[in-house]
């Protein structure tokens, strides 16, 4: 839990530091003030860095205090649920163009429903998957004119 | 108010297709708003793709209908299963749920729908009178005033996240820095694109919005999905008694204007409006002990206020082009995508669009009260549909929506990254509205800042050169000090109380 608690302030510190360095390495403008594109992002990065450090200290102060959401995120089947939803999303992104909207959506929605809703409710899962996949294809492709693969 | 533009707007909003969009939007918004944990921002974000290819005027009408549909929907789940759709529906659980427990679910739903309806109507009337003068006033604004107004909006939204201001600032700074990615429009310099052509036009804020509000919220709700409440409610006749109406009518009429004015303020919104109206009614009530036990006025007041606030929140969006809340920020994002730039010029150049929206709000509120009273049986059935089925559908809608933005599956990865990031921010108790708001207004904020400095040869005096800018600076400072003042008075109150206790003992 402590690692997750600290990961967010550390992310902000790293992000603002990288952004600050990158701001000063921006190319100069050939029009007007050559440093004009740098001021705003550099200023923001400095303020963000200051707040990130304050935030780090705030988190360090209450490091031992329990965060029920982190606990929920790490307990039971929740990490698997979150991981599976994201993993399936990545697979969906890879196959979307290759096998087309309808097949990939049936696979994606079906997979997600079977995993989240459980195998016992297979009939509901199948009906919802097929009905919703066709309905969304019809709504977007035919009614809204979105060109789907 | 220009009567002919008003009438033209009325005719546009009465076009059969637009009435259909109002009904569809209101219904879909009600459904998403009813889902526990999902509020109007998610409802609008998920349903953005539906607006593509539409006329901008129909799109804004549809989005507004989704917005207040979600406000109506949020309280359905508060009353029936004690689970608010979002912050602004929390107050509806205080007395709405106890009423349902006492077997008065039908009465509670009817009071809430009627209160929302009247609150909405009061706010629309307020909108008609306030919008145009405000737009005319905003026409006088130069880049310095615009920059300061955006700064005020952002600082107000951060300051209102009391107890987590540092996190609010970080979320806001993150949004602002992300907005600097892409080609700098004033000099043509590529900033932070890392050589990726996809980033040259910047990070598409709609992907961030859909990622954070749709994927992030669903992932967040997965944390508790196995503890889903299985509470079935029997809803009898959906109407209230004369006694209940007698107790509710004045609270409804008082809370409408309060909610509307709070909604207009930057940063404030439905949650604050409903809480303030609830506490006000409790304080002036002759039966304060009944609050929390199922007092009809305890439900009517916040319901009227939060719906009025949702209408009020659209004023800064339409008249100044500056959203004051997460949901209106999402709407602004979608409107920019459609080529419609809300702001003071909207009332001058496209008055019919602005007035069509205002008129559509009247029709929308009528449609929603019908949906929420006549179709209550259907809504209760939808509420019985397990979240385990509905959440995967929302995730899928988020993917389809993202695809319609650029027809590229590369954005799916960005969507997942921002969704996962949104989950982390929620888990660590970060407010999301400052991030989204900053990302959307960030680009213009920087351009206005630089334009102001260019006109003054780099002197910061430009930010104190007019009455308006000085007032904006003062308001920004006050809004930032507000949490400190709040803390000070809280401590003083506490100290007074302990003093009294120690003296009496």
TrEMBL record, chain A:
Keywords: Membrane, Transmembrane, Transmembrane helix. It holds the Pfam family TctB. Residues 8-149 form the DUF1468 domain. The keyword Metal-binding does not apply. The keyword Membrane applies. The chain crosses the membrane at residues 7-26, 38-57, 78-95, 101-119, 126-148. This is Putative tricarboxylic transport membrane protein. It comes from Terribacillus halophilus.
From TrEMBL, chain B:
Residues 19-437 form the DUF112 domain. This is Putative tricarboxylic transport membrane protein. It comes from Terribacillus halophilus. The keyword Membrane applies. The chain crosses the membrane at residues 20-38, 44-68, 108-131, 143-162, 169-190, 202-223, 256-278, 313-340, 361-383, 389-405, 412-442, 462-485. Keywords: Membrane, Transmembrane, Transmembrane helix. The keyword Acetylation does not apply. It comes from the Bacteria.
